[in-house]
Amino acid sequence: MTMNIPQLTKRAAWQPLEAHYTKIRNMHLRKLFADDPKRGERMTTEAIGIYFDYSKHRITDETLSLLFQLAEESGLRARIDSMFRGEKINITEKRAVLHTALRAPKGKSIVVDGEDVVPKVHTVLDKMTGFCNRVRSGEWKGHTGKPIRNVINIGIGGSDLGPVMAYEALRHYSQRDLTLRFVSNIDGTDFAEAIRDLAAEETLFIISSKTFTTLETMTNAHTARDWVLKTLRHPAAVARHFVAISTNVGEVAKFGIDTTNMFEFWDWVGGRYSMDSAIGLSTMIAIGPENFRAMLDGFHQMDEHFRTAPFERNLPVLMGLLGIWYNNFFGMQTVAVLPYEQYLKRFPAYLQQLTMESNGKHVTLDGTEIGYQTAPIYWGEPGTNGQHSFYQMIHQGTKLIPCDFIGFIQPLNHLGRHHDLLMANMFAQAEALAFGKTPQEVQADGTPAWLVPHKTFEGNRPSSTILVKRLTPEALGKLVALYEHSVFTQGAIWQIDSFDQWGVELGKVLAGRIIPELETGTEHQLKHDNSTNTLIQRYRRYKK
Ligand code: G6Q
Question: What sections of 288-346 are H helices per DSSP?
Fold first, then answer.
């Protein structure tokens, strides 16, 4: 544990970083590039097939060396080792944090509470493989003897966002005669629309819930069971049409799912870090076991890179530290994630949970109120779509928004000029953000004086460019792990517990109180604040 690390602003690198910030905060990227013609080659790193260009950041070599010093003083190295060793670094829940064990190859050994967890991981992976092969080949039959053609994952948060994102990202590799859908919201519309055009006898539900008690998931799971029973009219249908992914055998059995059709994971897998555990069953069904294992291998390669590469060439460390620089010195509030890859359309949504649920914390590990900023807001859309909406603000607005551009050199769908046009736009956006267009340049185009300010781009807007050869399952694993470990790096610097999520609890408790007040009506005396009482009364009055 690294509790004896001084508070962030008391670490030796902090004051020099502040002084350095004051010195370079107005320095323009135009000057930085003019002073160092090789900057765009020099300030890049390539590792395990990921090319990371960080030259368009408002940094100098001194910035980086101070940030590396800060990382050292924050005990990052020791903290990385603690995580990989399976120490209980999620201190508020007293849990190990071992998503890295989910992608550890056979033969490795990681011991938690006296037990090697790697063989267990591989037993579940083998069980998933057998099941997936039966579903994909049509050998697994529904209650009426028909093969499964539709698979619906019911889960929410960490039990949904990873699977949806991975399914969309790897759709190119998916078995196209299977329909995959994802139901998460307790809003009945989500379920109703998901099953509208499907036949229950050809549909398999995967109930994905670590706890198997989550309100949304259990409500949707019961609705799914009612639908299946109503159509297939026999309790035995449940065993053919439902499987579970959970840590809670008791609740799975109570629901009526045959526990031989349960795929296990463990309390040392956090929800938002679980897409490569059994929670990835829908992904494996879609893309097949081999591709799934290739994705795990990608994750593992990034794990090893993070664990062993010197900070100067360590992709997640670099990315995490650049985030600290903007968040804690420039005071930037958000980060835009801009994949130039349609298949990554759910990647920003996935990253929102990963980054903000992990690092949106207000106290340090020892419970002290934090006196500095933690997680920035992550948001984004695939390019080029975003260019025609919010990019205006990134280029000319009053807020500085660092951007992550993510692109792939080879397209998965070759269609005429499309890919060159797509990538030209990505490179152009990063260029325009960094270098802008001066009033003189605008004037030289013949723009009338009154219009010049409107058409001026001040530039100096920072971005990273992540360039990968091709979007493969392996590449996706690397990309997700890159962000996971960058979040970890930042959590270590901020000295917070990146693996708990107490902030979601209060709303759940209050909803539990309000549910009977809405369902059973007026006999409940309302004891909320005046606004909540009035809203509930209005709802009751008009709900009929
Ligand atoms: C993730 C969170 C949260 C969780 C969901 C679903 O890190 O813990 O998003 O994944 O609340 O929980 P269950 O899997 O237990 O249903």
Answer: 289-308, 315-324
Residue with CA closest to ligand 1 atom 9? 157
DSSP helix, strand, coil percent of the chain (3-state; round to 5): 55, 15, 35
Candidates 211, 247, 262: which one to mutate for ligand 1, based on the most atoms within 8 Å of Cβ?
A: 211
Told to judge if 508 belongs to the known catalytic residues of this protein, a careful annotator would answer: yes
CA-CA distance, 151 to 132, in Å (whole number)? Answer: 11
Question: Which member of 222, 469, 508, 519 is catalytic?
Answer: 508
Q: Residue with the nearest Cα to atom 1 of ligand 1?
A: 271
The residue among 286, 77, 69, 92 whose CA lies nearest residue 173 is: 286
CA distance 389 to 16: 39
Given 388, 399, 418, 469, which residue is catalytic?
A: 388
**Could you give the CA distance from residue 76 to residue 68 in angstroms, rounded to a whole number?**
10
d(CA 64, CA 288): 42
- CA geometry: angle 51, 52, 58, nearest 5 deg: 155
Pocket probe mutation, ligand 1, options 159, 262, 508, 509, max atoms within 8 Å of Cβ = 159
**Residue ranges lining ligand 1, Cβ < 6 Å:** 156-159, 209-211, 214, 217, 270-272, 357, 501
- The lowest-confidence range among 276-285, 323-332, 373-382, 519-528 is 519-528
How far apart are the two ends of the chain, measured CA to CA in Å? 56
The single residue of 201, 264, 357, 474 carrying the catalytic annotation is 357
Kindly report the average pLDDT of the chain as a whole number: 97
| Run of H or E residues at 140 | none
Nearest-angstrom CA–CA distance, 501 and 165? 21
What is the per-residue pLDDT across 104-144, written as a single tens digit (0 to 9) for each? 999 999 999 999 999 999 999 999 999 999 999 999 999 99
State how far the alpha carbon of 428 is from the alpha carbons of 338, 415, 425, in Å: 13, 21, 5
Coil, strand or helix at 209: coil
Per-residue H/E/C for 153-208: EECCHHHCHHHHHHHHHCHHHCCCCCEEEEECCCCHHHHHHHHCCCCHHHEEEEEE
CA of 268 to the centre of ligand 1 (A): 13
388 among known catalytic residues: yes
How many residues does the structure list for the chain? 544
Which residues have CB under 8 Å from 356's CB, separation 6+? 375, 377, 378
Distance CA 289, CA 284 (A): 5
How many Å apart are CA 279 and CA 117, to the nearest integer? 17
Contact (Cβ atoms closer than 8 angstroms) between residue 118 and residue 266? no
Measure the CA–CA gap between 188 and 324, rounded to whole angstroms: 40
